[in-house]
Amino acid sequence: MHLSSPQLGRLLAFARIALGLTALVAPKVPAAPWVGSKEAERSSVQLFARTLGARDLALGLGAVTAPNRNGALRSWVLLGAVADLCDAAATVKDFRQLPKISRWFVLASTVGAAAVGAVVAATIENEA
User: What is the DSSP letter of 78?
Assistant: First the structure.
């Protein structure tokens, strides 16, 4: 089965929506790999995880609902990649303070998501 670039862009968007909803409903799930299980119990960390979840939800919904013309879908997918790249930069900044077991996973997932999003965005062509 071959997916077109717009279909891949929307697939990434649905993954972002799922992550966003998870963070809003169960903020410890995405927070624990990033900061550790003990820190993920803190209400301030859960608040922050929910705000990131809202960001991902909005970026995902924007991409899913964007028409594939005038660069709209490409822009939403690229904006998601930029957000992921910023997450990677924040992870690198505090890398040594993150849990040793999961910090490489977090870094790989943020860099990987940014790279995949950027490649998919670059390949999306506008339909007339």
Answer: H
